[in-house]
Amino acid sequence: MHKASLEKKPPRCWGAFLVVLVFGLLSGSVVHGQSRRVVNGLGMAPMLQAEYALSGDDYLFLGTNTPFSTGGFDGFDLTRAGLDAGYERFWNARWSWGTTLGVGAYSTNRDGGEVSPLTVDVVPELFLRHWNTLGNYNFRQRLGVEYLIPGGTGNESRARTRLRFDLDRLIPVGQVVVRPRLAYEAFAYLRFQRDEDAPKERTIDFTALRAEVGLRLSDHFDFTPWFAYQSTYNNVLQQTDINGNVVVPGGRRNFVTPMLGLDLRYTLFKGKQVFDRRQLPTQH
């Protein structure tokens, strides 16, 4: 089996990584201290992927995902089916750029049995990735800008950005390669101009902390079980009863969803001949 090569370079970015880690922990503490926290039921997120290795580290990929929840929230049961496609090209060992296209179809069921019409969202994205090494560890930073084109009526298209940091290591164990990995991602809508009467929004809209262990069984097949805490940050209006008494206070609200996932990936090689390459985790 061909194994990804790791560059032996001094850990010059340890300081930057520690700053990011401390900032994330501190910001999480501040958000928790000033906001109410609501924990949703466990979500499940299986994914099937096919990757086509081009030349060097370049690749194309296609994936399907069907996330679902094991417990409803406020009487809703959301089902979704998604299709993701992408391409990434490496300029050199450190820098790359790419593009993705996500399509998601979903409907909403209410307690009364009413089913909303099928809604389809489309999300094109451009991203830039930096790949560094910390000793035997891979340290990557991924910055993406995407544009949400929602389906349905009354929904507005919006630009948003994502920033992700991830750290992993490849550990050969016999014929298997194990990849423990930790990733943190922050997501925010881009607010170039906001009307004065528009509702106030949080600076960061979404974060995800993900831990996983990838297992590469051969040059063609690998799978990754993972667990994540996904948080959505909102400002909500207070709710009152018929007498005007506050039932649910308004203000800052953090909705936390624990997620359990399994990614299955099959890799094909251009020319049908296996060659050495650095393969990214299943979370492209």
TrEMBL record:
**Domain of life assignment:** Bacteria
What protein is this chain from?
Answer: Uncharacterized protein
Q: Name the species this protein comes from.
A: Hymenobacter roseosalivarius DSM 11622
